[in-house]
Design brief:
Blueprint: H1 8-12, E1 18-23, H2 35-39, E2 43-48, H3 52-61, E3 66-69, E4 78-84, H4 97-100, H5 106-109, E5 112-119, E6 134-137, H6 143-148, H7 151-156, E7 159-165, H8 176-185, E8 188-199, E9 216-226, H9 236-250, H10 253-267, H11 271-279
Parallel strand pairs: 1-2, 1-6, 2-3, 6-7
Antiparallel strand pairs: 4-5, 7-9, 8-9
Helix pairs in contact: 9-10, 10-11
Length: about 280
């Protein structure tokens, strides 16, 4: 499917912004999925990054619709933050050498250079995050902790993007199955994976590249959405926000079509027809 499709805002002449909460907004992995919405002025972002160096980079480039805060999200309690050699592996959880040692490079990248005590903040207790439509999580193993203390925000959101692990790269880390169960209990179902990352198990090396993927899936980015069989439970405004996120961020045009059909049923509008005409050139 095309990733250069016109935005849903332009197709349907919409004007509202979607609200994005980005937990772990460190820009090391490139532009986020919501980048096109943000650049077009159709999103406002509340981002969190406890790494002060990364936070300064975010603040230096932030636009008028972005706010970045230094909080470490969690359960509101004090935890030990493990600063690793590779900043992207810094976590509230301790790196797991038994798992990391299966793969090239990870023991070095996950080496803990120092620790510090940090007081985490519950997402539900941060006023700026009220009304979140999309919640994005990349907090190195603490995703379930954040979600368990964000039940009010989950009740408002329609889409969740979260990093998930298939092996415990950190000691005591909840895996994909546990996050999936929790989110299903809160009205969300897996929509799809936008990324699955694998690595070669040691001692094999492919093409002298220790970053090469092969048989063992390690982590991924999972997209969860409100139950598509219960769209009638959502209000019209929530349906449009969900549709905008799925269209612009993930190109899930078929899901958007169904969401707009429910919107039309509730509001007696014709967005579904307009979208259907535009969708022919997007698939």
């Amino acid at each position: 499917m095309s990733n250069t499709a016109p935005s849903l805002h332009s197709i349907l002449n919409l004007s509202f912004p979607v609200t994005v909460v980005d937990a772990g907004a460190n820009p090391i992995d490139g532009a986020p999925a919501y980048d096109s919405l943000l650049k077009a002025g159709h999103a406002k972002v509340i981002g969190f990054e406890p790494n002060l160096e990364a936070l300064e980079k975010l603040k230096s480039a932030q636009g008028p619709n972005e706010i970045y805060l230094p909080h470490a999200l969690g359960d509101g309690k004090t935890h030990r933050l493990h600063h690793c050699y590779a900043p992207g592996m810094t976590s509230l959880l301790e790196p797991n050498p038994d798992v990391l040692g299966l793969f090239h490079g990870f023991l070095d990248w996950g080496h803990v250079e120092r620790t510090e005590e940090v007081t985490t903040v519950r997402l539900d207790d941060i006023a700026e995050t009220s009304g979140a439509d999309l919640i994005k999580l990349d907090v190195q193993g603490a995703e379930l902790m954040v979600l368990e203390h964000a039940r009010t925000r989950l009740a408002q959101a329609t889409v969740i993007e979260t990093e998930v692990e298939f092996l415990p790269m950190y000691v005591g880390q909840p895996l994909f199955s546990e996050i999936d169960i929790f989110l299903r209990q809160n009205g969300f179902y897996l929509h799809r994976f936008s990324q699955i990352v694998s690595r070669v198990l040691k001692p094999m090396i492919l093409n002298d590249d220790i970053m090469a993927g092969f048989s063992q899936s390690l982590w991924g980015v999972a997209i969860f959405v409100r139950d598509l069989t219960k769209l009638s439970d959502l209000k019209p405004e929530a349906l449009l926000r969900m549709a905008a996120i799925l269209h612009d961020c993930y190109q899930s045009f078929d899901a958007v079509q169904r969401i707009l059909m429910e919107y039309d049923r509730q509001t007696k509008s014709c967005y579904g027809i307009l979208y259907s005409k535009a969708a022919g050139g997007m698939a």
